[in-house]
Amino acid sequence: MASMTVLFILPVMTLAISRPQIPSIFSMSSLLNGTGFRLSPDVQIIVDSSVKNESPTTLDFARTFRGDLLSVASLPYLPEVSQNIDSPRGTEPRPIISLSIDTSLKYTYFNGKPSDEGYELVISENEISLTSSAPIGLWWGTRTILQQVALSASNGSVHFLPLASISDSPGWEIRGFMLDAGRHWFDTKFLADLCTYASFFKLNEFHIHASDNLWNPSFLYGEGNEGWKNLYAAFRFQPPLGSPLEGLVPPIRKNESWTKEEFLNMQESCAHHGVIVVPEIDTPGHSLVINQWKPELMEMGQPDHLNLSYPDTIPTIKSIWDEFLPWFSSTDEVSIGADEYDSSLANDYISFVNEMSDYISFKSGKSIRVWGTYEPSETLSISKNVTIQHWDFPGDTIPIQLLQSGYDIINSEQYFLYLDEKTSEDGQFPQELNEDLIWSGAPAGKGWAPNIFSPTDPTNNTNYDDLHLRGSVMALWCDWGNNATTQLEIYYQLEKSLALFSEKVWSGSGVRENELTKEEFDAVYPILNAAAPGQNLNRVPVPPIRGNVVFEYAKEVRTPFETSFDSIGPPYILTFSVKPSTKYPYTGTLFSGTDSKLHVSNLTFEATGQLYSIGINLPIGELTTVTIRATKEYTYAVINGVEENRYFWTTTMNIWGDYMAVGNMSFAAPSKEIGTDGFEGSIHNISLVIGSE
User: Fold this and answer.
1) Which end of the chain is more exposed for a tag (fewer CB within 10 A), N or C?
2) Which is nearest to 211 in space by CA: 289, 316, 133?
3) CATH T-level fold of 549-690
4) List of E strands, 310-372
5) CATH 3.20.20.80 applies to domain 177-510
6) pLDDT mean over 573-601
């Protein structure tokens, strides 16, 4: 197999070795009989229109690619996507990037099943030719082009791409990540941006856990205990007005639920970036939100479990799916959860899973997934039409036994692939994937891959080409609820982990010659993270700035005042002097932006619908200087330059009812508006600077 080392031709015609990309390319041959392809504003993207495709089409992907290329290459202009080469009369032919479908091309995953996700990429002096058997393969090829453009810029090669021939395809069908949106609220714009970011690293599924509750035994269990009625639980799909399901989302949760239009738009955005959204409505366990709505469905003594024997339970669950199945436009699979239910009710559980599999298939043509749960029935078994998502030993049936029995399996083994927001009980789960474990900590030191389920017992692992191994989904759980993190803090946990995970689910460990090393990954990841197009989760200044000063106002600002910057991500330093002129309690907002607000009262940050205060009451009629420093790990204030006193914004989390844990908060700088919401007073000497010092 040829080496994947990529050569870039510099303007002075010297050769430079580029760094590999994420995930690694399967096969690449360098061609040295030319000067390379120069990316410039006259490059035209050409789409072969001879093959008609379902949405998103080749043309859809090409148009998104054009916008991404403008961003990554920092080009002032590119011609619109065309189906014909359009060169001005009397000029040399335009350099082109061509996207075409060739249905004779054949690709397979490691398990031998056919794949539409492979692509061929040939870079010549005047053309980059990208070919695949389907539009999705073309899309992944455009991610390769974009990454090489970003890397060429970092090498100072002015977007000269080497003459090369590339053949690439993924090893596994499912390369996804899961976010717990049942216990923590996320708006659909943020979710769509996560899709776009993950897509840059060729992940293709976003599993959204859309219903659940906080777990607190003292509220849930115990004879005569009714605390469960008030324990936080949420169902994120908002039934339309007048629907029989309207009470499933009570008025207090309406602002924490998605309308049909919002969810459809989010799915469309994800689909146009190659990512399928797989929604999960979790039953018959984790069903407190349903029982709060209809208590008669509750299993006695288990408020978070459904009583599957009650006559109206399964019809109610079917009515929920009837309402929302038409919302799920981008996927042919959904998850019904179905984990952690009573083992003493194994037959009821298995019958329920099989009935829901048949029902959802009949109603929509979609198949279902369930989280692996050991149910000790001697008479019944789950249908092999159901994909089982393994997550735990020993609470799950052993995955190697399921594979050998003919079940399709997704690997979400918690030892390798679980994260928890902000903190974890007894340090069980990390904040980011354990890099040492993923790179080299699995059996034989080859690193983790989707075929690895056990870190210690090779007999519980399988071959990378197992017929029934569909791939892998990593998971981030939000066990401590809304107040534990902001949305952007969730991104900070995911950003590097998604890229690392993508390498292993595209290429594996010890399977292909050209897999990345940890050193190669660490070298290119910061470049690619900064270049990832189509979103701004890093909250870099838009429009771009020179230097590190976002804005600076030396005199008093006449409020309300609007800047050009919506939100600035950490690290940053925000300094200002403020003189409130009204009596306590103060009203008004000092600074507001897309992600957060800073209220004058008690210097309170507001983010993701939650309030976080440091309890500082500013003196009336006096000028107080406040300096706020933020990183991705914390935010603190210094008052009147007294550096010895640092006031950290924190949150308090209830760890499963056992104890309270304090965690630092990180906020994006609220940089759009100054002195709003009825603020009375004056604000002086404002500066916002990127950097920690």
Assistant:
1) C
2) 289
3) Jelly Rolls (2.60.120)
4) 333-337, 367-371
5) yes
6) 91
